[in-house]
């Protein structure tokens, strides 16, 4: 059974060259790290993401064992 969640930016369409990835205990923590990464590394404002973007990104957060 998975005990953490992960996100790899390179899995996002258009971000294949980005090496960033995060692993955290909860999906909420991963979301916060994804949003911070998007701001710092890609100059995006997560507050401007629409529901479809958030839904898509949510599919990229995967359960993992660490």
TrEMBL record:
InterPro entries: DUF1059. This is DUF1059 domain-containing protein.
